[in-house]
Amino acid sequence: MMEQARKKKGGVKAHVLYSLEAQVPAYAHISTASVHDSKAMKFKNSRT
Asked: What is the reported pLDDT for 44?
């Protein structure tokens, strides 16, 4: 029997804002791969 092909791909993306002064990540957000980086930063700004 033939296997059915997947219709959608899955993926995750880690959005990380790195602090150069402290040399550690200042902010990290995990989202689906379809979320654009600029949208993730808007999410950060609305949470603070």
From this structure: 64
